[in-house]
Amino acid sequence: MDKGTGSGPGLLLIAPAPVVDHGQGRLTLDVKFTDGMRRQAALWAGLTGGKAAVVLWRGTQGMPFGAEYAQSDLGFDLILLPQGAPLPDDLLAGRAVVAASADMPGVWDLPQACATAGAALVYTIEYTLQTRLQIVGLDASRGVLRKGWSALWTLRQERQRRRAFRRADAVQANGFPAFEAYRGLNADTLLYLDSRIGAGMLATGAEMQARAARLQAGAALRLVHSGRLEPMKGAQDLLPVARALATRGVDFTLDIFGTGSLAPVIAAGMAEPLLAGRVRLHDPVDFDTVLVPHLRTRADLFLSCHRQADPSCTYLESMGCGLPVAGYDNAMWQALMQASGAGWAVPLGDIGALAAQVAALAAAPDRVLAAGQRAWAYASAHDFETEFALRMQHMAAVLQRRQGGEPA
């Protein structure tokens, strides 16, 4: 097995990202995951002179935001395991740093394994226990008994997760809720905000001025939403909010980007006389070349009905395009809103309150524009390059500390 190490210390990442192996060196990977891995590999090489490798498990299904790649062109080493297979016993030999996602099971024995192998261990985490239990409760495919069993399994996993965090060299927490939930378990816990909005993708001054001129001239408020159209993501509330706005006589449009089990329901509902011509549903589109340009030039406000506290990339990505956010006060958006001043929050699941907030903003474009400027400024300080550099510098510092202060 290729250890993925060059002249410097090797970095091994263990991740739950989907992959479909087509054979002959061709595979389908999630685009955002691949972009992030490429960035991490380049930064790690620059900091330490070492190579990065990632462990993934083969799957059989496609993915809505995937693309086909040649394995030789990835820019990082890829270790593919059979679906459901445990980590190989020799996987850690020769590794200097192991970064493992604690959002997946099967990684709780790594503290001892890394200590034996002489590798530093950094866990990454996104979901809190509360979010995991919410996901179980919202799973319509499971009955009450299966949900109960899943909740018990989730609680057992949480105990193992917390024990492993205490024994790791460090933890990297994506988003405010995860950081608050776990920082007390490990003295070296880093907060980061994941997104794929790079410095070169941020809204330009001219685009921000064009949006301001349009809104100040009394044009319709252009709402946008992107993401998985699933109940656990709150997509079932998009059309009710739109109906409430239309009933109030608000001049608006709503563009929805994404796919999921609720897409047919949304497609049928947007044909209603009240919503016809106002709501448009788009298939998943390329992030860099289609979605970001749309957000920068054809939208004014991001509508979020997200009920969970997971650190959705969508917040920062929309903010970097100059869009403020109007959404529910889940723990992630509440904290991000307070830190950035980039929007508004209403009680979780309160469709009427969300519609009322958007209606008030439609009548006060200067408020939208001011929050959009704050959104842009905050996202600019936490862009893709900055956050990934922060993470890799942290891992390099963990390695240096483990090596007794010697440069990595």
Automatic annotation (TrEMBL):
GO molecular function, one term: glycosyltransferase activity
Keyword Glycosyltransferase: yes
Superkingdom per UniProt: Bacteria
UniProt KW keywords: Glycosyltransferase, Transferase
Signal found in the keyword field: no
Stored PANTHER family: D-INOSITOL 3-PHOSPHATE GLYCOSYLTRANSFERASE, GLYCOSYLTRANSFERASE
Protein name (database record): Glycosyltransferase
Organism (species): Fertoeibacter niger
